[in-house]
């Protein structure tokens, strides 16, 4: 057998090559890989002994040669292929072990210029891999160091099953496709290009999807996932489910949007409780007060570390997940008593980009820029006779941000910096208003209201006033704006138009 080994990631390469040599495999290599192998005492030959041609253009051309690719692509069951190879003095190559220049890592550097980026694009490596994967019934393509032990064991046993060869080929084509996708993404300046270059890497298989009859897995996007749910560290608890990950991500996005200390409690990706306070114990208690019934079995999120006192305050309640930047050793010891409770630690010490919002529809994909919950409040317009007081304006700003995280039609009622009532996902905005009022109860009196989109008719304004709301923020822009303003003035409500909506379907 003859093998080509040329790897950027040299993890396990020497040990793998030593194992191959012990099986009598003749090894050919290039550049840094060749030096690493020979320095370790592996009997490896330069690729130039096959090509009988020197490396050119500062190493840009090493393996792009018929002696290489004919040896890889020759079909062992085709006598004519064997005759052609023999006529040219070319011997078959049976194993191609290649991983590619670290393009992704290089292009994450802020100081990388285009000239240097282009030098990180591997040409010979993908070409050899694709050739080997195309000819997988006879040639083994290996791109992942994790596959070295299994490949070595199978070769030592004398046979690599067809299913394993096919798996390695599929993995190789996926590897080269993702590599090309990363290059295309780096070179693409159009926000919505004709072809969308994306790559996703499997993090874990999940027990099931939204329902037990649905299969599921969790993938991370290519690129920097720092501070995202895909980079979360699970410190304890049961394995995360499909729904757990959705809810935990919603909690994370909410708390990361606030600069001040915040606590939120979610159910089905909607915040049923949310409060800002310098004391997280108070913030947690206030968040629970928004809807203590729905808080049972909820997902909790904080944007500050969880200490022992906060852990003790939460220990009396049943939660599924707690998401936070960190947990003290004492907090972990307290919460360890709840063996099923998942603790997710996510770094939150630098800004993160959500990237494009992708939503699958039958036969297609909707792509949009993410909706930011941070709005320029200086553009807000007071449209009623009464302007909001300073305290009401502060509460309205908080309520408006909260409304961006509630499913449409979204209505939230707020006191100060605490969510006291929420209506979400109703087909009628009036229904959402009445639902929020029912959730708030007596706390609706003196509250402020935020609506993620405009009120089309004054009945929503009337419902808000009946519930006890004293100020209201909404986008405006409806044909019924004049009637809504008239109703607000009649009820003595201060109302502000933002000129921007926050639908979340």
Considering the chains and any ligands shown, give keywords for the structure.
505 residues, Rossmann fold, Cytidine Deaminase, domain 2, six-stranded mixed sheet
Care to describe what's here?
The protein has helices at about 15-20, 30-40, 50, 65-75, 80-85, 105, 115-120, 125-135, 150-155, 160-185, 240-255, 280-290, 290-295, 310-315, 330-335, 390-405, 430-440, 460-465, 480-490, and strands spanning about 1-5, 25-30, 45, 95-100, 140, 200-205, 215-220, 235, 260-265, 270-275, 300, 320-325, 340-345, 355-360, 365-370, 380, 410-415, 420-425, 450, 470-475, 495. It is of the alpha/beta class and about 500 residues long. It folds into 3 domains: about 1-185, Rossmann fold (3-Layer(aba) Sandwich), CATH 3.40.50.1380; about 215-345, AICAR transformylase, duplication domain (Cytidine Deaminase, domain 2, 3-Layer(aba) Sandwich); about 375-495, AICAR transformylase, duplication domain (Cytidine Deaminase, domain 2, 3-Layer(aba) Sandwich), CATH 3.40.140. A 6-stranded mixed sheet has the order 8-13-12-11-9-10, with helices on both faces. A 6-stranded mixed sheet has the order 16-21-20-19-17-18, sandwiched between helices. α14 packs parallel to α15 (about 330-335) and α17 (about 430-440) runs parallel beside α18 (about 460-465). The longest helix is centred in the middle third of the chain and has 26 residues, at about 160-185. The chain is elongated and about 95 Å long. The model has no long low-confidence stretch (mean pLDDT about 90).
Describe what is shown at a glance:
With 505 residues, this protein is of the alpha/beta class. Helices cover 37% and strands 20% of the residues.
């Amino acid at each position: 057998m003859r093998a080509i080994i040329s790897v950027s990631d040299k993890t396990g390469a020497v040990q793998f090559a030593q194992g191959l040599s012990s099986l009598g495999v003749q090894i050919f290599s290039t550049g840094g890989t060749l030096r690493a192998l020979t320095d370790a005492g592996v009997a490896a030959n330069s690729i130039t002994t096959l090509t009988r041609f020197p490396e050119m253009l500062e190493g840009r051309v090493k393996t792009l040669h018929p002696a290489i690719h004919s040896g890889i692509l020759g079909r062992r069951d085709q006598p004519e292929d064997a005759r052609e190879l023999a006529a040219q003095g070319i011997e078959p190559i049976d194993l191609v072990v290649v991983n590619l220049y670290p393009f992704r890592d290089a292009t994450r550097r802020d100081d990388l210029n285009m000239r240097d980026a282009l030098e990180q694009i591997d040409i010979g490596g993908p070409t050899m891999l694709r050739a080997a994967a195309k000819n997988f019934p006879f040639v083994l393509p290996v791109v992942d160091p994790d596959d070295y032990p299994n490949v070595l064991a199978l070769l030592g046993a004398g046979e690599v099953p067809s299913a394993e060869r096919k798996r390695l080929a599929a993995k190789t084509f996926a590897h080269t496709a993702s590599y090309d996708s990363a290059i295309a993404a780096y070179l693409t300046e159009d926000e919505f290009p004709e072809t969308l270059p994306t790559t996703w890497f499997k993090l874990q298989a999940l027990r099931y999807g939204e329902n037990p009859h649905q299969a599921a897995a969790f993938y991370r996007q290519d690129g920097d996932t720092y501070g995202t749910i895909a980079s979360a560290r699970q410190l304890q608890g049961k394995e995360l489910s499909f729904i757990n990950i959705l809810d935990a991500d919603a909690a994370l996005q909410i708390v990361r949007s606030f600069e001040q200390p915040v606590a939120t409690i979610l159910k089905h990706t909607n915040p049923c409780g949310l409060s800002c306070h310098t004391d997280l114990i108070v913030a947690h208690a206030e968040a629970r007060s928004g809807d203590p019934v729905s808080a049972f079995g909820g997902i909790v999120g904080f944007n500050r570390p969880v200490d022992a006192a906060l852990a003790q305050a939460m220990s009396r309640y049943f939660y599924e997940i707690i998401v936070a930047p960190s947990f003290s050793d004492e907090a972990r010891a307290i919460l360890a008593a709840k063996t099923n409770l998942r603790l997710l630690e996510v770094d939150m010490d630098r800004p993160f980009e959500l990237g494009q919002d992708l939503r699958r529809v039958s036969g297609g994909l909707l792509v949009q820029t993410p909706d930011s919950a941070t709005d320029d409040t200086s553009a807000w317009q007071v449209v009623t006779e009464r302007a909001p007081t300073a305290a009401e304006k502060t509460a309205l700003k908080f309520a408006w941000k909260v409304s961006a995280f509630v499913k449409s039609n979204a209505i939230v009622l707020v006191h100060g910096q605490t969510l006291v009532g929420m209506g979400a996902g109703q087909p009628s905005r009036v229904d959402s208003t009445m639902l929020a009022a029912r959730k708030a109860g007596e706390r609706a009196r003196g509250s402020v209201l935020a609506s993620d989109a405009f009120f089309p008719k004054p009945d929503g304004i009337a419902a808000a006033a009946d519930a006890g709301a004293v100020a209201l923020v909404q986008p405006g822009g409806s044909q019924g704006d004049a009637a809504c303003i008239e109703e607000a003035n009649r009820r003595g409500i201060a109302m502000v138009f933002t000129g921007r909506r926050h639908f979340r379907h």
